[in-house]
C-alpha cells in the first residue's frame, strides 16, 4: 500500500478538502504544520491539496511557497497554482505562471481562458482560444459566454453554430447572449428550443425577464418550474429588487425555504437600490456570513447616496479586500465629485485591472475631462470595448460630437453601446440627421438604442414622430416609458402624460422617481395645482417613493405660478435634505413675477448661502429685477394718486 493511501494521508486529505471548502485558513495552517511534522511532508498528493486550500483561502504567498516545495510537481500541481494566481493575483502573475508551465493540458488552457473571460479581456481570450492545441465544450462555452457578456449576439450565434458539440450550458449561454444584447424574444425562443429544461435553464430564463424589466413573466417562469433551488428563489428576488419592488422582495425573502449568502446579498442590495441604505445596513449587520460581495454592496450603497466617507469606513473594516471593493470605493468618491481622492485611490490600488482603469475613466468622462480621460486611456495596458465607449462619453460630455464620431471610427470593434452613445451625442448637440443616419446603419439595436432615437426626435421638436416610434416599440422598459412621459410633459401634453402613466402601470412597470418628475412637470406646464398636490402625495403614500430635489423643484414652481408663495416657502423648509440653490432660485423667480419683495430677498440670500459661487450671479441679478419692478410699480402708483388728488 503506497503512502498516498495510508490512513494518515487519507485523514489529512479529508481535513484539507474540508478547510478548502470552508475557506478556513487558520485550521488549514495548523494541518500544514502537522503534515510537515509527519512522515508525509513531501507527499505530492498532500502538497497539491495544500496549494488548493491556500489558493481558495486567498493566501497566494503560502500557496506559492508550498508549490515550490513540491519535489516533482505534475500538471495537476501546476493547474492548482495557476488557479491560485487567478483567484488572488493580477493578470501579469497569471500570465507569467501560465507561460512558465513545462506542460499544459486542456484544464490549463481552459483556466487561463476563463481568467481572461471573467475579466472581459476579449482579445486575449480570443488569442488563447485560437492557440489551444485541443478544445473541449468548456473552452467553447467560455468564449461564447464572453461574447454574450459583451452583448455581441451576432458573434455569439456564429460561435454557437460552429461548436462541434453543445451542452445545456452552451444553450443557456446563447440565451443569455441574446438577453444581454436586448433581444429578449430571441432569448425566449432559444429557451423554447431546448430539448429539456433544467433548473439552471429556468433560472437563466428568470434572469432574462429580469434584464427585460418584466417581473410578471419572471414570476410566471418561477411558478412554472417543476423543481426549484435556492438560486431560483434568489433570481426572482433579484428581479423584484431591480424593478424597485421592495415589498415583494421582502415578502419573497421571508417565504424562502432556505437562504444562502447570495440571497442575503440580494435582499441587502434590494434595499440599497431602493434608497433605504439604513435598512440595507441593518440587513448587512444581521447576515450570518459575509463575503466580498456583501462588503462591496454596502460600500456601493453609501457611494450612491453621496456618502463616500461612510463607504470608506466599511472598506477599512473589510477583512480581505479584492479588486471590486477597491473599484467600488473609487466610484463612491468619483460619484461624489471628489476626483482628487478617487485619483489617489487609483494610484494606491495594489492591482489595477481593466475594471479599475474603466472606473477612473468613468470618473473623468462624467465631467467631460478629456485631458485626463485620454491620459488614463492611453496608459491602459489593454483596452476593452467599455474603455472605448467611455472615451466616446467623455467627448459627448465635453460637447464634441465630431470627437465622439472620430473615436467611434477608430474603434477596433463596436457593440450596441458604441453605436447608441455616438448616435445620442449627435442628437444632443443638434445633429439630428447624423443621429438618424447612425441609427439606420446600426447592425443591431436594443431597447436603449430605440429609446435614444425616440429622445432624438423629441430633441428635434418632433414629438409626434417620437410617440409613433414609441407606440411601435416592443418590450418597453421603465426608461423608455419615462422618456416618453417626460417628453410629453415638457411639451405641455398633459393628457398624454396621464395616459402614458396609466399604460405604464398596465404594462407591468412600477412608476419610479423619474415618472413622477414627468407627471409633476406636466402639472407645472398647465398650472394644475390640485393635481400636482395629489400626485406628490401619491408617490409617497401609494408607491413609497421619497421625493427628490427635482420633485420639490416642480412643486415650488407650480405653487409659485399659482401665487401660493407662502406655501412654496414652507414646502422648501420641510425638505429632508439641505435645499439646493436651484429650489430657492425658482421661488425667487416666482416672487419677482408676483412682486413679493420681502420673500424674494430671503430667497436670494438663501440661494447664495447654499452656493457661494453664485455671489454676484443669478440670484442677485433676479433680485435687482425684483427691486426694479417694485420701483416701477411704486412710481406708477404714486402717479395714479397724484392724478386722483388733482
Which regions contain 5 or more consecutive residues with pLDDT less than 50? 633-639
| Radius of gyration, taken over Cα atoms and rounded to an integer in Å | 30 Å
How confident is the prediction overall: mean pLDDT? 85
Structural class label: mainly alpha
- In total, the number of strands is 0
Q: Identify the overall geometry.
A: globular
SSE topology:
Blueprint: H1 7-22, H2 25-36, H3 44-56, H4 60-69, H5 75-88, H6 91-99, H7 106-118, H8 122-131, H9 137-149, H10 153-162, H11 168-180, H12 184-193, H13 199-211, H14 215-224, H15 230-242, H16 246-255, H17 261-273, H18 277-286, H19 292-304, H20 308-317, H21 323-335, H22 339-348, H23 354-366, H24 370-379, H25 385-397, H26 401-410, H27 416-428, H28 432-441, H29 447-459, H30 463-472, H31 478-490, H32 494-506, H33 513-526, H34 529-541, H35 549-561, H36 565-573, H37 581-594, H38 597-610, H39 618-645
Summarize the structure.
The chain is mainly alpha-helical and 646 residues long.
Amino acid at each position: 500500500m503506497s503512502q498516498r493511501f495510508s490512513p494518515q494521508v487519507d485523514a489529512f486529505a479529508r481535513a484539507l478538502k474540508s478547510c478548502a471548502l470552508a475557506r478556513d485558513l487558520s485550521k488549514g495552517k495548523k494541518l500544514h504544520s502537522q503534515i510537515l511534522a509527519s512522515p508525509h511532508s513531501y507527499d505530492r498528493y498532500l502538497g497539491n491539496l495544500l496549494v488548493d486550500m491556500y489558493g481558495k483561502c486567498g493566501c497566494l504567498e503560502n500557496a506559492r511557497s508550498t508549490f515550490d516545495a513540491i519535489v516533482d510537481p505534475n500538471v495537476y500541481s501546476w493547474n492548482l497554482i495557476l488557479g491560485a494566481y487567478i483567484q488572488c493575483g493580477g493578470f501579469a502573475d497569471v500570465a507569467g505562471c501560465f507561460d512558465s508551465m513545462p506542460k499544459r493540458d486542456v484544464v490549463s488552457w481552459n483556466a487561463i481562458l476563463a481568467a481572461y473571460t471573467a475579466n472581459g479581456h476579449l482579445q486575449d481570450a480570443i488569442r488563447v482560444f485560437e492557440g489551444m492545441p485541443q478544445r473541449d465544450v468548456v473552452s467553447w462555452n467560455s468564449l461564447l459566454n464572453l461574447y454574450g457578456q459583451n452583448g455581441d449576439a451576432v458573434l455569439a450565434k456564429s460561435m454557437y453554430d460552429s461548436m462541434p458539440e453543445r451542452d445545456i450550458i452552451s444553450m443557456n449561454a446563447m440565451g443569455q447572449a441574446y438577453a444581454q444584447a436586448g433581444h429578449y424574444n430571441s432569448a425566449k425562443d432559444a429557451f423554447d428550443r431546448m430539448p429539456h429544461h433544467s433548473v439552471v435553464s429556468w433560472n437563466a430564463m428568470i434572469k432574462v425577464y429580469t434584464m427585460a424589466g418584466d417581473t410578471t413573466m419572471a414570476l410566471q417562469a418561477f411558478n412554472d418550474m417543476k423543481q426549484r433551488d435556492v438560486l431560483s428563489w434568489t433570481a426572482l428576488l433579484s428581479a423584484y429588487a431591480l424593478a424597485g419592488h421592495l415589498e415583494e422582495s421582502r415578502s419573497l425573502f421571508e417565504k424562502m425555504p432556505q437562504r444562502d449568502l447570495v440571497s442575503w446579498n440580494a435582499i441587502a442590495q434590494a434595499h440599497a437600490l431602493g434608497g433605504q441604505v439604513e435598512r440595507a445596513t441593518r440587513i448587512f449587520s444581521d447576515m450570518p456570513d459575509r463575503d466580498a460581495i456583501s462588503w462591496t454592496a454596502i460600500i456601493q450603497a453609501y457611494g450612491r447616496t453621496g456618502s463616500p466617507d461612510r463607504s470608506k469606513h466599511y472598506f477599512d473594516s473589510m477583512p480581505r479586500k479584492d479588486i471590486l471593493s477597491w473599484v467600488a470605493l473609487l466610484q463612491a468618491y468619483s460619484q461624489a465629485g471628489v476626483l482628487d481622492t478617487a485619483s489617489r485611490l487609483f494610484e494606491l490600488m495594489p492591482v489595477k485591472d481593466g475594471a479599475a482603469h474603466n472606473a477612473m475613466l468613468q470618473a473623468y468622462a462624467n465631467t467631460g475631462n478629456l485631458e485626463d480621460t485620454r491620459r488614463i486611456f492611453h496608459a491602459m495596458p489593454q483596452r476593452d470595448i467599455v474603455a472605448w465607449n467611455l472615451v466616446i462619453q467623455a467627448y459627448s460630455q465635453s460637447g464634441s460630437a465630431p470627437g465622439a464620431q472620430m473615436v467611434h471610427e477608430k474603434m477596433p470593434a463596436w457593440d450596441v453601446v458604441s453605436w447608441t452613445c455616438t448616435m445620442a451625442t449627435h442628437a444632443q448637440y443638434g445633429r439630428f440627421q447624423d443621429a438618424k443616419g447612425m441609427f439606420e446603419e446600426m447592425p443591431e439595436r436594443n431597447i436603449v438604442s430605440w429609446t435614444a432615437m425616440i429622445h432624438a426626435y423629441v430633441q428635434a421638436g418632433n414629438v409626434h414622430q417620437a410617440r409613433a416610434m414609441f407606440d411601435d416599440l416592443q418590450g418597453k422598459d421603465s426608461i423608455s416609458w419615462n422618456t416618453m412621459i417626460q417628453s410629453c410633459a415638457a411639451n405641455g401634453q398633459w393628457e398624454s402624460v396621464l395616459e402614458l402613466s396609466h399604460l405604464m402601470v398596465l404594462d407591468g412597470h412600477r412608476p419610479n422617481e423619474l415618472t413622477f418628475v414627468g407627471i409633476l412637470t406636466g402639472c407645472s406646464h398647465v398650472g394644475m395645482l390640485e393635481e400636482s398636490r395629489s400626485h406628490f402625495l401619491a408617490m409617497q403614500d401609494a408607491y413609497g417613493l421619497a421625493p427628490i430635489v427635482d420633485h420639490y423643484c416642480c412643486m415650488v414652481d407650480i405653487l409659485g405660478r399659482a401665487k401660493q408663495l407662502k406655501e412654496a416657502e414652507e414646502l422648501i423648509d420641510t425638505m429632508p435634505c439641505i435645499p439646493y440653490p436651484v429650489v430657492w432660485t425658482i421661488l425667487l423667480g416666482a416672487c419677482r413675477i408676483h412682486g413679493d419683495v420681502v420673500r424674494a430677498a430671503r430667497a436670494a440670500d438663501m440661494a447664495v448661502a447654499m452656493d457661494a459661487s453664485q455671489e454676484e450671479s443669478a440670484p442677485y441679478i433676479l433680485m435687482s429685477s425684483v427691486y426694479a419692478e417694485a420701483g416701477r410699480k411704486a412710481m406708477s402708483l404714486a402717479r395714479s394718486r397724484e392724478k386722483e388728488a388733482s
